Amino acid sequence: MLQDGTVHVHEPDATPTRTRLIVDVDTGIDDALALLYLVASPDAEIAAALCTAGNVPVDQVTVNTLSWLEVCGRPDIEVAAGSQLPLVAPLMTTEDTHGPQGVGYAELPPPSRSRSARSAAEAWVELTREQPGELTGLVTGPLTNLALALRIDPDLPLRLHRLVIMGGCFHHPGNTTPTSEWNVAVDPEAAKVVFDAFSIVPPERRPIVCPLDVTESIEMYPEHVSRIAEIVGLAPSGELSPDAPRGTRSTAEAPLVRHITDALRFYMEFHRDQGIGFLAHVHDPFAAAVALGAVPYTTRPATVDVELDGRLTRGTTVADRSGMWKRAPNADIVAGTRPAEFFDHFVERVGSYIRDLNLPPSKN
Ligand code: RIB
Ligand code: CA
Hints:
This protein is α/β, with parallel strands linked by helices. The protein has one domain (8-218, 282-338): Ribonucleoside hydrolase-like (Inosine-uridine Nucleoside N-ribohydrolase, Chain A, Alpha-Beta Complex), CATH 3.90.245.10. Helices cover 36% and strands 16% of the residues. The chain has helices spanning 29-39, 58-71, 95-98, 120-130, 144-152, 156-159, 182-186, 188-197, 212-215, 222-232, 255-273, 283-292, 339-357; strands at residues 8-10, 19-25, 44-51, 79-81, 135-139, 162-166, 208-210, 219-220, 280-281, 297-306, 317-320, 331-337. The strands form 2 sheets. Strands 1, 2, 3, 4, 5, 6, 7, 10, 11 and 12 form a 10-stranded mixed sheet that branches. Strand 3, helix 2 and strand 4 (79-81) form a beta-alpha-beta unit. The protein binds alpha-D-ribofuranose and calcium ion (CA). Calcium ion binds at residues 26, 28, 30-31, 140-141, 284.
């Protein structure tokens, strides 16, 4: 059985429709950028932000997400905490990548409100039951919460309009083991539960998977932050210069620009220490833009499964593009994009939002 291995081309929607999202995060520097981008997007509405252990433990992810949404001017968005642990694996976190608190050098004000009374898994189930067919799921962290929700309600995939996952790598080196990507490697069992469960949805609603193959081409540089600051109306500063001392803090008067700069400096120093360069792979805001249909990308259908037992390959996502397993495709894997167009869109949208957020009330 040869599958339709056609490459599908997706161009930005000329008249964007409103996308109402459940966002599941492990905030995380690039998760924070994804949340800011969505809050800045007139065509996006966040129904809830659900927190998963990943970059840092789930309680820290939850505090980061509460604080970050408040700094972004959206303290109204529900934030629910998920499981402390993956389904089976011991918890693995990566403070060396995202900083001791998970937001680089940024020092966010403590949240003034509490997390939701319900768990992340309960929120997945209840929101999709209340709004069947209306919600797009965007997961930019490990898939633990969604897997737990699927255990409660196996029909959930049929009530989700679409699912977009930042995760996996297919014909590209891993960032956690030689063949596995972080979000899948933290909880491989959860990733397998999700890919298996979403095999029941019709082809036009297959999960869209944004793997490292493409997200590692989304390289954010200091100049992108400078362009955001310029739109906000701030004088250029050399604080994100690669030549500035390690740990240099921003003095930008706009809090969001200051926090973005401080978060990204840590992330860019990490990438430089890895020999990649003074840049940041911003995986999650790209996945968010795909969820909105706001950027160009191509996809190829495949049947995706996850290796659980390999001594060397546990957590590896495997894509069958030609029907060798005799199983129908269960994913549309993003195969390419135009990074410069993503950044033009991202910088303009985020910069404009911060500028208008910081306008004195008389100018609103
Ligand atoms: O592998 C990259 C992914 O892992 C990103 O979502 C990053 O935030 C981490 O969660
Ligand atoms: Ca993430």
